[in-house]
Amino acid sequence: MAGSNPNAKPMNLTLRVWRQKNRTTAGKIVDYQVRDISPEMSFLEMLDVLNEDLLRKGEEPVAFDHDCREGICGSCNLFINGRAHGPEAGTTTCQLHMRKFSDGDTITIEPWRSTAFPINKDLSVDRSAFDRIIQAGGYVSVNTGGAPDGNEIPIPKEIADRAFEAATCIACGACVASCKNSSAMLFVSAKVSQLALLPQGHVERKTRVENMVAQMDKEGFGACSNIGSCAAECPVGISLENIAILNREFLSAKATSNNLA
Amino acid sequence: MFQDSKIPEGPLAEKWEKHKFNVKLVNPANKRKYDIIVVGTGLAGGAAAASLAELGYNVKAFTYHDSPRRAHSIAAQGGINAAKNYQNDGDSIFRLFYDTIKGGDYRAREANVYRLAQVSVNIIDQCVAQGVPFAREYGGLLANRSFGGAQVSRTFYARGQTGQQLLLGAYSALSRQIAYGKVKMYTRSEMLDLVVADGQARGIITRNLITGEIERHAAHAVVLATGGYGNVFYLSTNAKYCNATAAWRAHKKGAYFANPCFTQIHPTCIPVSGDYQSKLTLMSESLRNDGRVWVPKTVETAERLRKGEITVNDISEEDRDYFLERKYPAFGNLVPRDVASRNAKQMCDEGRGVGSSGLAVYLDFADIIKRTGADSVSQKYGNLFAMYEKITGEDPYKQPMRIYPAVHYTMGGLWVDYNLQTTIPALYATGECNFSDHGANRLGASALMQGLADGYFVIPYTIGDQLAQTPPTPVSTNHLAFEEAEAGVRERINKLLSINGTRSPGEFHKALGHIMWEYCGMARNAEGLRHAKQEIQKLRREFWSDLKLTGTDQELNQMLESAGRVADFIELGELMVDDALHRNESCGGHFREEYQTPEGEALRDDENFAYVAAWQYNGENKPEILNKEELSFENVKLTQRSYK
Ligand SMILES: Cc1cc2nc3c(=O)[nH]c(=O)nc-3n(C[C@H](O)[C@H](O)[C@H](O)COP(=O)(O)OP(=O)(O)OC[C@H]3O[C@@H](n4cnc5c(N)ncnc54)[C@H](O)[C@@H]3O)c2cc1C
Ligand code: SF4
Ligand code: FES
Question: Bridge-partner residues for B189, per DSSP?
């Protein structure tokens, strides 16, 4: 059909896939062969091929999370050959294409590993800890209705742009999966700095950072040791600068806390 | 006789204000005695759940996603419309109303659309207050861009990620209510049936996707915000999991389904590259602000290009046909989606398509890059260009994008009255899941507007009218209707698991998509539609006798989930074909080849078809009953749409 590169040769690959029945059963790596994989396919389309094969043979398909397949929903989360979202920088698993691999390759596919992200089945993990961190304070407390006119709060373009950059986190969890301490600092800092940069977020900035950090600790994420593998593996380029902002926000909140609870 | 659409009396501009005054109120102390179920936590559902909880109602919210933040709304790129007139370019509530009615080819309800335009301005204010980082000018004020079907700049945006930022805004409001305990959130939980007890929507049956557990949930009212059904076509720009099950189950329980054949084909998507393709990627319509659409002037040049004898950069300016600019000088590349899509198809049908399959046209940025520089282009469209390159391996800064139309949005959906209530009392439908505001074609940047309008500013008022008439007695799941619905769900799952055939849910889905795209896609005709109906019926029989699944229902079983959704898509597909066949006119996205003007534009028949087709389920294997809601236009004149 209409590939941009009609001459690309199909590939045969060995997949080493983590299989685990459910949260409580131990898992293991199982090897599979896939044949005639087009380099134009996305990584997840290659897994679709595997799953169709398995189903045809009466074996259980591999469970994995995905939805948008456009790099924006944050659902996909595979640890490919030892790297979160695979070999291509700045790319989610769903946007990784098979042209980045070669015929005959062996590809190891594992789930995110972190005690804060229990495995549901195979490659699917439970990231609800992230939701609970946001519930602890990742919002501006405004009810629907009664908001002032949008242009009554002018915001310098540069600030708005920086807040936007921080706000583009897709909550995939690659930062946690790439960190040897399973720290969620990059994820938390992205939300904290978005709202610390914007005037709308100022009223609650102290309680927000304290509560979100407390929840992060409670969920069992590890400490940050400033190595930066999180930012290196973040598919949307959330910068380490956000962690610096979080630290600053946290220290100043602690110094002048109005969190009476 | 048709159900009352409850459109308030009085002049258009006063209807909503008056209605808000006239609806019954639930007193603040009583609100906590009412339970409301919201299914879906995209823009429409997330906004509704948060706002209803803020008012004091007890909300139970459901999503099959692992987090409310992952709903398909997250993928919206280009922007959201609002009649703010910040650009001083002549926009107004009436103009947004008028553009939407005209863009929808005069098949939407005036009163609903006017209300949408009215509340559009509040949406922007609300989102800004939440901390949504919209694009801004250097002076610090909000920036706008223009979108197809409009001659003013009224689209607010956050680079190419507007849906993401708006959804995260709604998600943050929802998260706050979850923290307060006013919303109980059920993730990875799929609604598999609606429970109707004593003539009223009283709850839902869900399946926990991790454990397989079947659960009953009761409430005083149920709000569906479950998105669109574009994945009937298998390949679409929708997220993989988008499906029609919630709406279709409600339909089979008595909710009318309106204008199912009104589907939108988006002109600018990345073309199909192989039959393994699992979804199509949209390139935002905002690109048509600066990109120029063209194909080679002659079939010969196009052929040489397809064979690889020449490259795109070998084609000189004189040999290019900027067909939209040529045919529609007033709107140029910014004609509405249906017009742009049909023209692209026409070029390819003539043999002037590009790419190795010939099913693509160019979207070229050379001019704007020359005029303003690659940096400024990257500021506006950087993420889209990067996405294009990732998928195709081609660099759009150096050569034009190849694009082709793809299924994108469904204007049809559950029929609702002015209160967004379906034909089942106490069942509401919001966002893409209802049919309400876009007629036969939706304008760009208007779906986000509608989802948030419904969720933040309409349902919180209108639902009170129903609840005020419902006694605040506690609800229970003991009613026989729950038992029956639950048994039905279990029986269906068992049936799916026990067919033991040979074909996967995906194979059936692809086959359905193929039928729908061939015969009920960009262009339709009576003969093709009749053929499609037979094919779909055949496919349905094969599905129920030859489906293959593995595993059990007591675990995460993604193929089982998919099978249930495909089964519903097949039934809905047949209704779409019936609807397309009965509508003997062309309008908006519904293009019947038999009905076109000499220039090949859609030819409406206002005399006979200025109505909403609301289909009523009538039992297994029986033809559905057609109900007509006549549309009356008092504030705009029905004319042949012209974008020339
Ligand atoms: C690629 C793309 C780009 C777009 N860009 C724009 C744009 O720029 N501007 C614009 O205005 N519009 C755009 N649209 C359209 C717009 O994004 C959608 O119409 C809109 O977001 C739909 O919102 P929703 O809340 O109605 O549904 P969705 O966001 O689809 O949410 C549906 C929710 O329902 C849940 N759900 C569904 N079924 C069930 C069930 N059975 N049980 C439990 N939960 C269920 C899902 O989990 C989800 O939470 C775009 C669409 C696409 C595909
Ligand atoms: S910070 Fe980056 S890696 Fe971490 S969750 Fe957000 S997007 Fe994913
Ligand atoms: S599937 Fe949505 S980001 Fe990958």
Answer: B208
